[in-house]
Fold:
Amino acid sequence: MKIVRRLGASPRERGSLNGDTCPDIFELSDGDFAVIGTDRTDTLDGELPTDAARADYERIVVISRETLLRAKRDIPDA
Structure:
């Protein structure tokens, strides 16, 4: 598995002062997506709707609204 491309603007383009640490979204060679975000599992786990669940190896990761909206143009329709 490899990172194929970034979706949306780079952290620097979104105003990160050092351009190194910020939320990011990547498309992977197997068609899946990887997200760099803030781990909010402890805060949001109890807030999940009753029809949602996560495995022990899964984490709830938060990215900024701007990160996702700027990636929207790069997210494939299918």
